[in-house]
Automatic annotation (TrEMBL), chain A:
The chain crosses the membrane at residues 55-78, 90-111, 123-143, 163-183, 216-235, 241-263, 275-295. GO terms for molecular function: NADH dehydrogenase activity. This is NADH dehydrogenase subunit H. The lineage of its organism: Bacteria, Pseudomonadati, Bacteroidota, Flavobacteriia, Flavobacteriales. Coiled coil: none annotated. PANTHER family: NADH DEHYDROGENASE SUBUNIT 1, NADH-UBIQUINONE OXIDOREDUCTASE CHAIN 1. Its main location: membrane.
UniProtKB/TrEMBL annotation, chain B:
GO terms for molecular function: NADH dehydrogenase (ubiquinone) activity; quinone binding. The chain crosses the membrane at residues 6-29, 41-58, 64-85, 105-124, 151-174. It catalyses: a quinone + NADH + 5 H(+)(in) = a quinol + NAD(+) + 4 H(+)(out). It comes from Salegentibacter echinorum. This is NADH-quinone oxidoreductase subunit J. GO terms for cellular component: plasma membrane. Belongs to the complex I subunit 6 family.
UniProtKB/TrEMBL annotation, chain C:
Keywords: Membrane, NAD, Quinone, Transmembrane, Transmembrane helix, Transport. It catalyses: a quinone + NADH + 5 H(+)(in) = a quinol + NAD(+) + 4 H(+)(out). This is NADH-quinone oxidoreductase subunit. GO terms for molecular function: NADH dehydrogenase (ubiquinone) activity; quinone binding.
UniProtKB/TrEMBL annotation, chain D:
Its main location: membrane. It is found in: Cell membrane; Membrane. Its EC number is 7.1.1.-. This is NADH-quinone oxidoreductase subunit K. GO terms for molecular function: NADH dehydrogenase (quinone) (non-electrogenic) activity; quinone binding.
């Protein structure tokens, strides 16, 4: 029963995220948009480029959606319901998301075309930029919880959420997750209007559908990650725990779209410079901050 | 009933290990058999990730997840360096890039066979059946890091520093003071 | 639940996703027919034909960062077990990790000083 | 017992393939791939020894961590050398690198 509710909740929140993206980015309410988009991609022809790398061309979309789904698996939904209660959950989240980059590099390489390839290598550069801040922010939450288990991370936040306890870590994690989901302002790998769609340029039909779906699931799992690492997970008054999880997740996803629309696009070398000259020292400072607070 | 269940579990685990091992060997072989550079880098990644899964089956959870994660970034960086330096990274021309074939095949066969013979004829005394839970492993590994292996840990830090300085000093173009 | 059961569940999630994708592909193949037209399969290049394959040498301008990242990345292998026991060990752990991170930070500063942190 | 032997044999075969790659390839980056394979085989063996012989010894896990570090550092230094050779000679083929002997 519980799992039914959670499954339906996941589907509903993914649907809601797509509708809200329509509202926040294109300023129109279209409640049927997800179904229409699904159908329109589904009836498209599968046009494949001429001299492609066949294995990678097939593997890339599947790897992309699989790791996005796997990243959801370790998060708890309420006090005692979690799909896989791994003792190394926080690290596993990181490890799954590293393969997003592998999938995009594959997708960029496979079609033997110039625009996707540039998009793929750019995302590699973006990984070099966002990887250190995201890892160090997670380490700081692990320090507070004294365990890498996600249940322990959420339970350590009773009373004071991590967003108050370590605001610097939250900001770094937030910016890094924008870069990881390649939303604007970090949407250089698929840069619409510059690279003709970048890594997705040569994918049509069902493969593009899988990519789009995987991207939405990726946004969902990253918002879920922020909810659990920094916003107290299932904690909240009156309502049952899983309702709070879904509410917070949808709110975080909406804030992604709003923030993305407000900022100008970053060039990828500027992303790298800001990350290594500002964000990495800040992340080290955040660890020191949490360390001193914990010892007091 | 309990005994039967354990035996079945052991057989399943053994067969998973064998399948994963064969997969790792297959991908490791593909690394040197293809002329497309990104393909060989990503085959190496697949082989290493399968090794990580074998660590997971052997219940070394932290090491397995860490291996799966580290290798993703490392091998992709390897792919970009291949792209930068190879004449023909796409492997469109099917160039042969190997030399001293007989010597290397002979050496590898001799080395592998020697190790396998040594493995199968040595006397492994007692095989442990139970391992600590992953949570306890994480805790104990941290304690090991802070107590007994502290010098190893700090030495690793200095060697990372040395590697950073060496690679920076070697790879970057000479700085021209007048340009600053 | 033991650790191995959890890996089985995660593997089940992988298989489930794979099954979904494969069902989608099969349905698509049944329902949608591909029309044959000449030159449909040429990669997009803003209206011009590709002069040569795209799989050539490509200068990655961020290789300085990549070299630094390869070495710097290893720090997290030591950081996670440390973070788990940090609160229990206390000030010793803070000092240990402080020295370790200071050493790594020196490397970052050196690379910055040598001009590694810019587009090459 | 049989699991240990299976895992160690996989390690041995990977080690053999690594030796083959390191000896037969002419390209510096490909040679490094062979070396990484050998290090990976060594790590696999270490984990197997930890799991089946001494589950209480955490210095073995520490050794695996050090092995991973060595892998990353070897890659970083190797790429740096490759970059420098490419800048001065225009190629990373090791057959042309005999000038390093003199």
């Amino acid at each position: 029963m519980m799992w039914m509710i959670i499954g339906i909740g996941c589907l509903v929140s993914i649907y809601a995220i797509v509708v809200l993206e329509r509202r926040l980015v294109y300023k129109t309410w279209e409640f049927g948009y997800p179904v229409a988009a699904f159908a329109s991609y589904f009836i498209q022809e599968n046009v494949k480029p001429r001299k492609r790398d066949k294995t990678f061309y097939e593997t890339a979309p599947i790897l992309f959606i699989t790791v996005a789904v796997l990243a959801i698996g370790i998060f708890p939904w309420a006090e005692s319901s979690v799909i896989a209660n791994m003792a190394t959950g926080a690290l596993f989240f990181n490890a799954a998301l590293a393969y997003i980059m592998v999938a995009l590099v594959m997708a960029g390489w496979a079609p033997n075309a110039v625009y996707p390839m540039i998009g793929g290598w750019r995302f590699m550069g973006q990984l070099i930029a966002y990887s250190m801040p995201i890892v160090m922010a997670i380490t700081a939450t692990v320090m507070r919880a004294e365990s890498m288990n996600m249940m322990a991370v959420v339970e350590s936040q009773t009373g004071l959420w991590n967003i108050v306890y370590q605001p610097v870590g939250f900001l770094l994690f937030y910016a890094a997750s924008l870069a990881l989901t390649f939303l604007p302002p970090f949407d250089l790998p698929n840069a619409p209007g510059e690279l003709e769609g970048g890594v997705f340029a040569e994918f049509t039909g069902t493969r593009l559908l899988i990519f789009r779906l995987g991207r939405i699931i990726l946004i969902f799992s990253l918002s879920l990650g922020i909810t659990h690492f920094f916003l107290g997970g299932w904690a909240g008054p009156f309502l049952p725990g899983y309702v709070w999880v879904f509410l917070k997740t949808i709110l975080v996803a909406c804030s992604f779209f709003v923030v993305g629309n407000l900022l100008p696009r970053f060039r990828h070398d500027h992303t790298l410079e800001w990350s290594w000259k500002l964000a990495t020292p800040l992340a080290l400072f955040n660890i020191l901050w949490v360390g001193i607070l914990l010892l007091l | 009933m309990g005994g039967n269940f354990i035996i079945v579990m052991n057989i399943i685990r053994l067969s998973i290990l064998i399948i994963l091992g064969l997969g790792a060997i297959w991908f490791a072989w593909r690394v040197f058999m293809t002329s497309s550079m990104v393909r060989s880098a990503l085959s190496l990644l697949a082989s290493m990730a399968i090794l990580g899964m074998m660590f997971l089956v052997m219940e070394a959870e932290f090491l397995g997840v860490l291996q799966i994660m580290m290798m993703a970034t490392e091998m992709s960086i390897m792919a970009i360096f291949m792209m930068m330096y190879m004449m023909d990274p796409g492997g469109m021309g099917n160039m042969d890039m190997s030399h001293q074939k007989k010597l290397s095949i002979g050496t590898s066969l001799v080395a592998g066979a020697m190790v396998i013979v040594a493995v199968s004829f040595s006397n492994w005394e007692t095989i442990a059946t139970e391992v600590p839970t992953p949570a306890k492993q994480n805790y104990d590994l941290g304690m090991e890091l802070m107590k007994r292996s502290m010098m190893i840990f700090e030495t690793a830090g200095t060697s990372i520093l040395v590697a950073m300085i060496v690679s920076t000093a070697t790879a970057l173009p000479f700085k021209n003071k007048k340009d600053d | 639940m033991s650790a191995l059961q959890q890996y089985t569940i995660l593997f089940g999630m992988i298989v489930g996703t794979l099954g979904f994708v494969i069902v989608l592909y099969l349905l698509h193949r049944k329902m949608v027919k591909m029309r044959k037209e000449p030159a449909k399969d040429i990669p997009a290049e803003s209206g011009r034909l590709q002069p040569k394959p795209a799989w050539g040498r490509y200068h990655v301008h961020y290789y300085g960062y990549a070299l630094l990242f390869l070495a710097f990345d290893m720090e997290m292998a030591y950081m996670y077990p440390w973070a788990v026991i940090y609160k229990e060990v206390g000030i010793t752990a803070l000092l240990d990790m402080g020295v370790f991170l200071l050493i790594l930070f020196l490397g970052l500063l050196y690379t910055w000083n040598q001009g590694g942190l810019k587009r090459q | 017992m049989i699991e240990l032997i299976v895992v160690l044999s996989v390690g041995a075969v990977l080690f053999g393939i690594g030796i083959y790659g390191a000896l037969s390839q002419t390209n510096l980056v490909m040679i490094m791939m062979g070396i990484e394979l050998m290090l990976g085989a060594a790590m696999l063996n270490l984990v197997a020894f930890w799991r089946y012989l001494h589950p209480e010894e955490y210095s073995i896990q520490m050794f695996v961590l050090v092995g991973m570090t060595v892998m990353a550092l070897e890659a970083a230094v190797g790429f740096a050398i490759a970059t420098q050779r490419f800048r001065t000679k225009g190629s990373v083929e090791m057959e042309e690198a005999s000038d390093l002997k003199e």
